[in-house]
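Intended use. Records like the one below are meant for learning the mapping from a protein sequence to its folded structure. Do not use them to infer anything beyond what is encoded.
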Amino acid sequence: MKVFEPYTIAGKLEIANRIVMPPVVTRLATDDGEVTEELKERYLRYAQGEVGLIVTEAVSVKKQKSGPLLRLSDDHFVPGLRDLVREVHDGSAGKIVPQLIHFLKISRSGYRQKVEDLTLDEVREIPGLFGQAAYRAREAGFDAVELHFAHAYTMSSFLSRHNRRTDEYGGSVKKRLRLAEEVVARTRQAVGDDFVIGARMNGDEFTLGGNSLEQSRAIALRLAELGLDYISVSAGGKFEDSVKEEGKAIDPYTTGYSGSRAMPPSWMPEQVNVYLCADIKRHLERNDHSPTMITAGRIPTAHVAEEIVSRGDADLVAVARPILCDPEWPKKYREGRDGEVRKCVYCNQCRDLDAAHQKVICVQGKKNNVE
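Structure written out for the chain above:
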């Protein structure tokens, strides 16, 4: 199967196959953002299950309270992450990448900070935060970095049509792209030309008044022009259509259609979001750009992944919940042991555990998960 053949990203990074484990929150870091043994065991299980490229849960670039979330906001986080990378490299052929995130404040009272609330000084510090975190990631031995430009967070919110800023960082698509351009430039400056930089972005926000494919094509093209080595296409996960629950911070994934498109439940069809990546990929090719393209969204089996790659809809295929359910998903399919794969039923109880700030496991596949 083509999906199990080696693949090289931008001539810089060879991975063992075309299977990607995209970011899935684990709630296994300490409240201070430190790596734990249990967290290392989780990522090593993915690597030994023969995932070609592992993208970690989001890693914060800013010094702020963020609970059990990994961080690269200070040099003292580097040794713990270096140990994580070393274990993955020593124990497997897998490659591992941190997803770098900047996020705004939310509270259980219902308060949600928006991009319009940031001062110019606060906006202008963001590119440096990403650049510094990317430099630390390379120092820790990671194989690449991924910039989180998707879903409900700061960078995606600047790119969105929901951005209501009236200065040089809001308004037209060109202005909304300005911060992303600055982040990519500072990140490239920090890690050098020989290091892979990718970004995850939305193909469609699935909110009224938000970005659709029309805006996403333009955003992806500009990111490709800036020299990104790969673009990972996701969808939805926006605050704008989330429903506030009393006593809980607003969650962009648990309520609203946008949240469902980010983590498609069982009632949605297989490959529900793949067309977004396919459309953007072909748009970039028509404009003479060919970054590695990664798709995601209810891809249950290796045979479905093979269809996607064979059609040319994506270069790599991100499989999150099925690999959470069975970390040996790639290995079992490669060895033809399809009947032994523990199947994800897309019940989204893993999402509910994250929303409840509990350790994220698959309730269907506890025997296959580090607990």
